[in-house]
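Exercise: predict the fold of this chain.
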Amino acid sequence: MQDKMQNFDIPLHDIKPIVDVQEYSLYYFLVASFVVLLLVLGIIFLLYKWFKKRNEFNIRKEHLKILRSINTKDAKKAAYDITHYGATFEDDSPRHKEMYKNLVSRLEAYKYKKSVDDLDSETLGYFELYKEMCDV
């Protein structure tokens, strides 16, 4: 029986032993995937910021547009509108505050009466100057 058993310790001269091959392709793939993911997330973030800014409501811009389009022919309504929408820009600077107080004191004569005359030219001049001072 021992004759039939093979001896596996025979030296082999033509076959080399197994060599570890350093395989980095998985790491390269993971790094490339991470970089692509960062780029995609960055683009999504920038698009989000752009759409958000595009659709953002700016109260100062809207009030300035309304101030510039006030019809001064109806003196009573104009006085109330100038007082209401002009208050948005009152705290911009001390000069704005003083100009706004002066304008409101001139508009008091047109507010609390049943019927009023047209706005006088001096009040209109102050209003035009205040509109030019206001910016968004």
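Check your answer against the key: The longest helix spans residues 25-54.
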